[in-house]
């Protein structure tokens, strides 16, 4: 049975963020809100937790996973990023974007796309996940909470509780979230390319 935290969307309770961080650090799988819907997350280095997430979503090792970061200070550790790309990201984060980069040696191989050796990076504009990341002091391994057979992310935390309370360790209720898919920008090749247009304005990257 998972824990269920009601967290204020604008002023997240510090004690609940500390408890959520402890759950992640102990190998737990959590559901948490972002600016693009609810996501599944776990510790970046925990293989068992990642396997649980893959089972919940019915996805395989070819899935494109994402590191959710508090800000850009962690990028150089986990990605290969040049100065021009860094300036572009700095001007457009936090926000509803997913950026694709070649991963560094600090990223566990199981998280990288097996063919392109890439990893997604997000800096979401959401107070709850920002407070959680500030407490954790490292990125969260993450994937959007899209259940098998569904096209869109889950947005109702009470419904999520009904379907996943025996599958995850914590559900953070940050309110109802609409369907706000991210704009996906690929920096892994020589030329920057927008591969999906979502909530984020694609024009700075075109």
Jot down its keywords.
alpha/beta; DHBP synthase; ten-stranded mixed β-sheet; 10 strands
Structural write-up:
It contains 6 helices and 10 strands. A 10-stranded mixed sheet has the order 1-8-2-3-7-4-6-5-9-10, sandwiched between helices. Helix 1 crosses helix 5. Strand 2 and strand 3 form a beta hairpin. It has 206 residues and is of the alpha/beta class. It has one domain: DHBP synthase. The model has no long low-confidence stretch (mean pLDDT 94).
Mean pLDDT across all amino acids:
94
> Which homologous superfamily in CATH is the superfamily?
DHBP synthase
Helix/strand/pairing class, anyone? alpha/beta
Instruction: Tell me the helix content.
Output: 25-40%
User: Could you give a short account of the major beta sheet?
Assistant: 10 strands, mixed
Rg value: 16 Å
Percent of residues in β-strands: 15-25%
Give start-end ranges of low-pLDDT stretches. Answer: none
From the spread of the alpha carbons, the general shape counts as globular
The CATH architecture designation is Alpha-Beta Complex
Count of domains: 1
């Amino acid at each position: 049975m998972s824990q269920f935290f009601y967290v204020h969307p604008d002023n997240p309770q510090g004690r609940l963020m500390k408890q959520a961080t402890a759950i992640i650090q102990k190998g737990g799988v959590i559901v948490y809100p972002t600016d693009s819907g609810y996501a599944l997350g776990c510790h970046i280095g925990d293989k068992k937790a990642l396997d649980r997430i893959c089972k919940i979503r019915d996805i395989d090792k070819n899935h494109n996973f994402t590191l959710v970061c508090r800000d850009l200070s962690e990028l150089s550790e986990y990605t290969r990023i040049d100065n021009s790309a860094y300036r572009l990201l700095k001007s457009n984060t936090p926000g509803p974007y997913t950026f694709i980069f070649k991963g560094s040696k600090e990223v566990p191989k199981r998280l990288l796309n097996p063919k392109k050796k890439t990893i997604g990076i997000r800096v979401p504009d959401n107070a709850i996940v920002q407070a959680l990341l500030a407490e954790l002091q490292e990125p969260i391994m993450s994937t959007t909470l899209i259940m098998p057979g569904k096209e869109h992310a889950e947005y109702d935390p009470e419904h999520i509780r009904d379907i996943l309370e025996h599958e995850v360790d914590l559900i953070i209720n940050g309110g109802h979230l609409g369907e706000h898919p991210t704009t996906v920008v690929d920096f892994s090749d020589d030329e920057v390319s927008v591969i999906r247009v979502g909530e984020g304005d694609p024009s700075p990257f075109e």
